[in-house]
User: Fold this.
Amino acid sequence: MGNITTPILRPISQIYRGIAFLRNKAYDLKLLRVGKLDKPVISIGNISFGGSGKTPLVRYIAEKLLAKGFKPGILTRGYHRRRKEDVVFVSPPSEGITSYDIGDEPFMLARQLSGAVFGISANRLRVGRRIIREFDIDIFILDDGFQRRKLYRDIDIVVLDTNRDSEGDRFISYGLLRESLSSLVRADIIVLRGVGSDVKSDELKNKIHRFNTSAKIIETSIEPKNVLSIDGKRVKPISYLRGKKVLAFCGIAQPNNFKSLLIELGVEIKSFIEFKDHHFYNRKDMNRIASLFLSCGAEICLSTAKDAAKIWEMDIDFPLYVVDIDYNFNCDDADLILLLITNIIGKT
Assistant:
């Protein structure tokens, strides 16, 4: 199959690469207009599709800002949502707002970031201006913003997965890249996320330095934080999972990352179900999971926070828990990121 599709997909990938290059060149030459909001903007993005770790970084930075007494506004498109008009609200979301309305990742973040203002729109500039009119906020966090160059940003943070972004230079549909490594010339902070080898990390840093020698490069990892009940109200320590017989399921971009994490935590995976990324669950899915749970010998079911955002209000008749994850920065790097951001707030 690969021998048949490769000659077809490679030229399509090269066309995408050319379009991305021309678009970026047009912004560099100021041929395309860039809009600016009256509050500072921190963009968090990546150069590849799916699973780089940008959404957990949005949560991490927003939580730090909220803890410092700042009020962030989160700007995001809300991929695969079924409600197309702009949605603006203060988290937590009201009963009238669901993951179907705003997308699974924004809904997940909204459940985690009480007090933040959310703007869900394909036009982040428009919804950002609306937020400024209606709310008193200090700063915007632009989710998945690296390619959204029509909105000016004060800091560009790019997340790279050392296990994926260090290999190859293939654009969609032949690979996973949205932009080449040369686009990192625009980045102010580059977060290398993963558990790859030192060799991979060094190779990636050498590639980055070919295009950008001034960006701050920070190496970190995403680690399990605790185990939550599906409604997020009950917490168990990560050690609770060790030795447990588990049925796990997820609908995320990199399901093998979740599976590997569970193995590292010492669980015995009796069955593992993969759904497509951003999958919206229905009653048939839940019945399938419940039936398999009864037959496979598992003690509990595990899933991700992104999946929980779409099923937490459904009737579930099996023990289901969520593995909550978060970034693990060393103190100096965490302080540096927060200092750079709060300094920008202080200048406005």
